[in-house]
Amino acid sequence: MHCSWVQERLVAFADGELSPGEATFVGEHLDGCEECATLDAALRDVTPAPSLAVPPEVLARMAAAVDEAVMAALDEPIVAAPPGMAARWGRWLRRDRDLSNGAMVGYGILLAACVGWGVSNWIAYQELQQEITNARPVAAAAPSSPATIDSDDYEPASYSPDASEENWR
Ligand SMILES: [Zn+2]
C-alpha cells in the first residue's frame, strides 16, 4: 500500500507544503485508510498550532496608529457641510434623467429659443404700442370740449308703448 509514503508526508500535508497533486493523493488516502487517518489525527494533536500572538511592539504600533486615526477623525467636522445650491440642482437634474447629455443640451437650447422668441415678441408689442401713443394727435387725445348732446337732440329715456309703436310704424 501507500501507507508509508503517506505517513512520511503527513506533517508536510498538515502544514500545506505538499504539491497539489500530492495533497490530493494524501487526502484521498486518509479518507479511505483508518490507520493513516488515526496517525494524522494524533500528529495534529501534538503539533502546536502556529502562534497567533502578536509581538508587543507590533501591538504598540497598531495602537498608536489607531490613536492617530481617531484623533484625525475627531478633528474633522462631525456634520458634513450641506452641498451648495449648484451641487443640489445638479444632483436633482441627474436623478431621474434618462436622456443623454446631448439631448439635454438640445432641449435646453430649444427652450431658450422659445422663451427668447416670446420675450422679443413682447418687447416688439410694447414698442409698437409706444409708437401708436406717440403718433396719436394731441387734440384727439385731449378734446377741447367734452362731448355733449344739444338740448334739441336730447330725448328723455322714457318709454311709453304708444310712442314706441308710432316710432316703429
Ligand atoms: Zn494508509
Would you kindly provide a written description of the structure presented here, covering whatever features stand out?
By secondary structure, the protein is an all-alpha fold. Among the domains are: 3-46, no CATH class; 101-136. 68% of the residues lie in helices and 0% in strands. It is built from nine helices and no strands. It binds zinc ion. The site of zinc ion has 7 residues, from helix 1 and helix 4.
Question: Summed up, what is this model?
Answer:
It contains nine helices and no strands. The protein has 169 residues and is mostly helical.
Write the SSE topology.
Elements: H1 3-8, H2 10-14, H3 20-32, H4 34-46, H5 56-75, H6 85-95, H7 101-135, H8 138-141, H9 161-168
The structure holds zinc ion (ZN).
Zinc ion (ZN) is lined by residues 1, 3, 6, 29, 33, 35-36.
The helix-and-strand class reads mainly alpha
Largest sheet: none
Query: What molecules are bound to this protein?
Result: zinc ion
Q: What's the SSE pattern?
A: HHHHHHHHH
According to DSSP, the number of beta strands is 0
Name some characteristics of this structure:
rod-shaped, 169 residues, mainly alpha, single chain, binds zinc ion
